[in-house]
Amino acid sequence: MASSADAAGSTHPSTHVTILAGGLSHERDVSLRSGRRVAESLRAAGLEVSVHDVDADLLRFLDQHRPDVVWPLLHGASGEDGSVRDVLQLVDVPYVGTGPRECRAAWSKPVAKSIVIGAGITTPEYVTLPQSLFRELGAQPVLDAVVERLGLPLVVKPTQGGSALGVTLVESADQLPRAMVDCFAYGNVALIERAVRGTELAVSVVDLGDGPRALPPVEIVTDGPYDYDARYNPGRTQYFAPARLGEDSVSAVQEVAVRAHQALGLQDLSRTDVILDADGEVQFLEVNVAPGMTETSLFPQAARAAGLDLSELYRAVVRQHTGV
Ligand SMILES: Nc1ncnc2c1ncn2[C@@H]1O[C@H](COP(=O)(O)OP(=O)(O)O)[C@@H](O)[C@H]1O
Ligand SMILES: [Mg+2]
Fold first, then answer.
1. Is the pLDDT of residue 262 over 50?
2. Which residues are known catalytic residues?
3. Closest ligand 1 atom to the C-alpha of 165?
4. Which atom of ligand 1 is nearest to the CA of 194?
5. pTM greater than the 0.85 cutoff
6. Distance from residue 229's CA to the centre of ligand 2 (Å)
7. What residues flank ligand 1, with Cβ below 6 Å?
8. Closest CA to 292 of 224, 225, 221, 239
9. How far is the CA of 110 from the centre of ligand 1 (A)?
10. What is the band of 2 on the pLDDT scale with cuts at 50, 70, 90?
11. Rg (CA), the chain
12. Tens digits of per-residue pLDDT, 76-110?
């Protein structure tokens, strides 16, 4: 293992971090970019870093190299649903972030919503519809009942997913069937919820051992839907970090993010997506256990807005698990 000289001139083994990036989800490319950025930052902090995909070589690699800690930067499916972390526990490798059980709950948007409702957080009214039930009951009567109950506009999204893939804003009832089809292309269960108009905010939370604290909210303004294209192609979206909010609103959205982090039992870091509606109510949309870390991602923007150095911050996250 690599060694480095400390200030006193003696040598000590440097911390070895293995970043997991890639995976087979729709967000593979985003994950690779997140992995590269965090790897650069940790190397700048003097750590030894390897980046590995989730593939047939991974367990052999972990067994042979025994990294001090693994940082899963996988977005979507097995990276966020807890299963990769389950396997890391099986082979006794420590990892950054939330445990498998809590990941599983956070990853499912309706489960996360029901848990945060229990913690007194407001979230848009919703129904979940599995594709099978939708077929069994006949699409049209179900959709009519949904529109009658929830009204319009609505948002349709897969219960499990990310990067706004399969998400549609539905403004009239005739757009709903198409939105359902698009959603079912990404998953078997659709979440249909009331669309909220207001200020879209992403609130990152970090816990460096002294309890979770929220970073400055980042405000997202797009020229259309905040979809995959708007997220990853610079220019279509304007970010304000920190958000252009009064002190009370900042405190309110930060409190929701910290409460969601705690209610869901999340570890180290998370990012909660909310909309601050016209009545000043903070509406919880979802939480991410492995927030994006690319050059345009919200978590790093929030950290910079807080005046934090990314290398130092990521180093401190790793230190939670390695002790050095
Ligand atoms: N209820 C809603 N009202 C208004 N916009 C929404 C609603 N739900 C989602 N959106 C929009 O869709 C985007 C993606 O939805 P989100 O629940 O955050 O899923 P993802 O996991 O794909 O990021 C959000 O960033 C927001 O712009
Ligand atoms: Mg989101």
1. yes
2. 27, 163, 232, 271, 273, 286, 288, 292
3. 22
4. 1
5. yes
6. 14
7. 124, 155, 157, 161-164, 167, 193-196, 200, 226, 273, 275, 285-286
8. 239
9. 13
10. very low
11. 20
12. 877 889 999 999 999 999 999 999 999 999 999 99
Q: Does domain 126-194 have CATH number 3.30.390.30?
A: no
Tell whether the model's pLDDT for residue 10 goes beyond 50.
no
Please give the CATH architecture assigned to the domain spanning 105-122+196-309. 2-Layer Sandwich (3.30)
Mean of pLDDT values over 273-288:
97
Span 208-223, average pLDDT: 96
Atom of ligand 1 nearest to the CA of 166: 22
Give ion ligand 2 contacts, CB < 5 A.
Answer: 273
Please determine, looking at this structure, whether the domain spanning 3-97 carries the CATH number 3.40.50.20.
yes
Pocket test for ligand 1, best of 31, 108, 157, 270 (most atoms within 8 A of CB): 157
Q: Which of 285, 288, 296, 297 to mutate to test the pocket of ligand 1 (most atoms within 8 A of CB)?
A: 285
Q: What is the pLDDT of residue 273?
A: 97
Ligand 1 pocket: which of 155, 182, 281 to mutate (most atoms <8 Å of CB)?
155
How far apart CA 63 and CA 165 sit, in angstroms, is 35
Residue 234 has a pLDDT of 74
CA distance 288 to 28: 16
Give me the percent of the chain exceeding a pLDDT of 70: 96
CA 7 to ligand 1 center in whole angstroms: 49
Contacts 24+ apart (CB under 8 A), 306-312: 306/215, 306/216, 308/215, 310/41, 311/41, 311/42, 311/44, 311/45, 312/45
pLDDT at 236: 84
Domains of the chain by residue range: 3-97, 105-122+196-309, 126-194
Residue in the structure block whose two tokens are 């939105």: 179
CA dist 126 and 111 (Å) reads: 12
Contact criterion met (CB below 8 Å) for 208 and 231: no
